[in-house]
């Protein structure tokens, strides 16, 4: 997404076109594919599982033996992207070894030129979407390296930055477009927090205009798409221009808000999605958040980071064209990664305690706010996105792994997790439009039950639990004030 921004600002550790990967890491005479600038509409979804990332980073397939000995004799040469992609689908190496020319992502181009980009921000762990997203708000995945159905049903129990903010006397709000993925946390299912969830389309712009944004704001994107409402999370095969449109909409609402001079807006991706990066992933001095060891077969120690991801920081307190490189502490090995978000929130709001050993270690990025007065020349509007996909949304497509997890999350909210269709039969052969109908219906049932529970005088710590519901398919139907975070799916 941002590699070719180096052509705009040489200080950015991006790409020059000299970067390459061999088609076979075991064959010295193998053809090498050089990184190009031909990305447009991305259709295949490259591998980004734990095993796939291991091969991308270390240049050899994952095995139990290689995984247990990586600390002694493996270095992250970042040479296995092309080979791993070809093992999934012939020709996919061309997809993972290309990036977007800046003019094709004009919203990001403008933001990188006008504000700050961090060129050394890594995923918290070398694996899929959901475990990495958990780090954004709780600095741990509680041992998850993949989807964990048991934890999904029960809700992940770790403390979150949302609770820390509440304990400190500050407010938070989650603006969702489909049922919020933050409900993977058990605590956020409590009645006391239900009013912290807001429909993005109904409330976000109004709250911006009225100056009523909470102190810590999370904006979730549309993870599914229909013919009427396209997905905007940048996950293949969704239209990248819709993601650009979404970022533009959020920025312009924030820019027009009376709270603008109090805002630090962060755009981040949860993981690299299987696409090439030349910067080696950190493998030394990374602390396990809570000393939980991941499940077999990987038995991951949570002691190395994932691949670099795009990170853009936006505020009138940031000088134009700022590039934030590696972290300067608090430890010699500290890096910017997703736990940097709760770590920075804790520092800005002077909160009582860290969530885990990981956010205590992660670099904080308030250092990017270098001005003594806020700028008055920040753009009011951003450029219009460039169309990159022919044709409209494809609502009959099969679900990605994260989309399946969101459907299964919805099933825990409406009671369907008690049926024999849960977890796998529920999502088997389900299309995007079916998923949208299902998750919207399930979330509505959950909200209705929350309202009924309130009316019955249930305690604020109560988590509504619904009985078995309906069949699978349903009817269609800053500095001290604002910290805003947008997490993009990849």
Structure, described:
GO terms for molecular function: phosphoric ester hydrolase activity. Residues 1-41 are annotated as: Disordered. This protein has 490 residues and is an alpha/beta fold. The radius of gyration is 22 Å and the shape is globular. The chain folds into 2 domains: 102-368, 3-Layer(aba) Sandwich (Alkaline Phosphatase, subunit A); 401-483, no CATH class. It has helices at 50-58, 64-73, 81-88, 92-96, 106-114, 129-138, 149-154, 161-167, 200-210, 240-255, 340-349, 357-361, 401-414, 424-427, 432-455, and strands spanning 20-22, 32-34, 116-118, 121-122, 172-176, 197-199, 216-219, 263-269, 311-314, 322-324, 336-337, 482-488. The strands form 3 sheets. It has an 8-stranded mixed β-sheet. A two-stranded antiparallel ribbon has the order 1-2. The longest helix has 24 residues, at 432-455. α1 (50-58) crosses α3 (81-88). It is built from 15 helices and 12 strands.
């Amino acid at each position: 997404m941002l590699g070719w921004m180096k052509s705009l600002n040489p200080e950015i550790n991006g790409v020059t076109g000299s970067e390459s990967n061999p088609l076979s890491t075991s064959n010295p005479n193998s053809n090498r594919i050089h990184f190009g600038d031909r990305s447009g509409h991305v259709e295949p979804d490259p591998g980004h599982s734990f095993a796939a990332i291991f091969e991308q980073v270390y240049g050899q397939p994952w095995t139990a033996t290689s995984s247990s000995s990586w600390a002694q004799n493996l270095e992250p040469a970042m040479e296995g992207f092309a080979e791993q992609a070809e093992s999934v689908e012939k020709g996919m190496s061309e997809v993972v070894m290309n990036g977007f020319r800046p003019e094709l992502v004009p919203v990001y181009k403008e933001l990188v030129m006008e504000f700050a980009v961090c060129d050394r921000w890594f995923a918290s762990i070398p694996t899929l979407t959901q475990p990495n997203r958990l780090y954004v708000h709780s600095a741990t995945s509680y041992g998850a390296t993949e989807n964990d159905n048991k934890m999904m049903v029960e809700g992940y129990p770790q403390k979150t930055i949302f609770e820390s903010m509440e304990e400190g006397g500050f407010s938070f709000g989650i603006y969702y477009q489909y049922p919020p993925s933050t409900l993977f946390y058990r605590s956020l299912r409590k009645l006391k927090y239900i009013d912290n969830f807001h429909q993005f389309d109904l409330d976000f712009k109004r709250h911006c205009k009225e100056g009523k944004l909470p102190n810590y704001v999370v904006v979730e994107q549309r993870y599914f798409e229909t013919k009427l409402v396209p997905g905007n999370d940048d996950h293949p095969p969704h239209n990248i221009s819709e993601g650009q449109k979404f970022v533009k909409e959020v920025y312009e609402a924030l820019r027009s808000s009376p709270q603008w001079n109090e805002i630090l807006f962060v755009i981040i991706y949860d993981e690299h999605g299987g696409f090439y990066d030349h910067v080696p992933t950190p493998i030394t001095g990374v602390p396990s958040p809570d000393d939980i060891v991941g499940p077999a077969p990987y038995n991951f120690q949570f002691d190395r980071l994932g691949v670099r991801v795009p990170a853009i920081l936006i505020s009138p307190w940031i000088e134009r064209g700022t590039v934030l490189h590696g972290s300067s502490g608090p430890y010699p090995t500290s890096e910017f990664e997703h736990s940097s978000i709760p770590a920075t929130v804790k520092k800005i709001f002077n909160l009582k305690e860290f969530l885990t050993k990981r956010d205590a270690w992660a670099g904080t990025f308030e250092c990017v706010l270098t001005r003594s007065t806020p700028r008055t020349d920040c753009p009011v509007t951003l450029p219009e996105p460039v169309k990159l996909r022919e044709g409209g949304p494809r609502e009959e497509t099969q679900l990605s792994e994260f989309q399946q997890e969101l459907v299964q999350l919805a099933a825990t909210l409406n009671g369907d997790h008690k049926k024999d269709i849960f977890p796998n039969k529920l999502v088997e052969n389900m299309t995007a439009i079916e998923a949208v109908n299902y998750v919207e219906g399930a979330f509505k049932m959950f909200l209705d039950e929350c309202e009924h529970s309130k009316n019955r005088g249930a305690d604020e710590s109560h988590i509504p639990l619904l009985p078995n519901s309906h069949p699978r398919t349903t009817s269609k139907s800053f500095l001290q004030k604002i910290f805003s975070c947008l997490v993009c799916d990849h």
